[in-house]
Amino acid sequence: MHTDAIAFAAYGAPDVLEPAATDVPDPGPGQVRIRVHATTVNPLDLKLRSGAMAAFMPLDLPHVPGLELAGTVEAAGPGVRALAPGAAVFGAASHTYAGLALADVRRLALIPQGMDRHHAAALPVAAEAAWRALEELDLGAGQMLLVHGAAGAVGTLAVQFALARGARVIGTASAAGLTHLTGLGAAATTYGAGLAERVRALAPGGVDKALDTSGADVLRDSVDLTGSPDHVLTLADPVAARAHGVRFSSGGGTDDRTAEALAAVGALYENATLTQRIHGVQPLSQAARAHRIAEAGHLDGKIILTP
């Protein structure tokens, strides 16, 4: 089925994103075709478009970007019974900068009643990364977790998931993000020089686990604070991870935790404890502009794109 989309035919700056027409096939077994109501700009979208990931994740060009969505099921593939046409869903999928997209039902969930589609679309990728990280760290109740980049999309959800598990949390952020973190229920401090001393003052009993979502040269301090590289995980810096002997998690394949993460998001929402920030909403036709805004940094949430 034909649909309008945004695609890039060559790697480069945001202006390589241009309107395109693409075909979305009928859903196969375990798949649904979704009418996309909202998608987002993720850091990986920027890296894929620029060519920064070309050596690791080569793409067939032209490529329709996009990693997550909220929308309505239009058609279900053979054997799919859990999600019928008309169901409002959110989840992870590929090529979501389009009016229609295919998705694996295992990476989708029903949008919780009352949640708007913009917020739903912004959750899946960040929630999966945050949930996967806490699972790999084996974070338990009563433990102290240090989250670097805690005011970002992944960090914000990691803080909330950790607190829901009964852990205690210290989050690092810029000065502008500290109020956001304390509002979530975390202790908060700024990053930068003297970080380890500030964290020790907030956690005199020590830090059990540390999660880096920022890639801001924090792994040495994290190992010192937790006492072992085995207690530190980064989602942002594979090179530094190797240098300091800590774990790097990129997800995908059998490591994908989207289904668990969406269930955890739903539980937070049902308990009225889910907090999420949206930086702004742009029409999909302005995807290049949205990428420029995202690359400039200093966002207080994800940018939503609406076809």
From TrEMBL:
SUPFAM superfamilies, per the entry: GroES-like, NAD(P)-binding Rossmann-fold domains
Domain Enoyl reductase (ER): 12-305
GO function terms (MF aspect): oxidoreductase activity
UniProtKB keywords: NADP
CDD domains given in the database record: MDR_like_2
Protein name in the entry: Enoyl reductase (ER) domain-containing protein
Species of provenance: Streptomyces violaceoruber
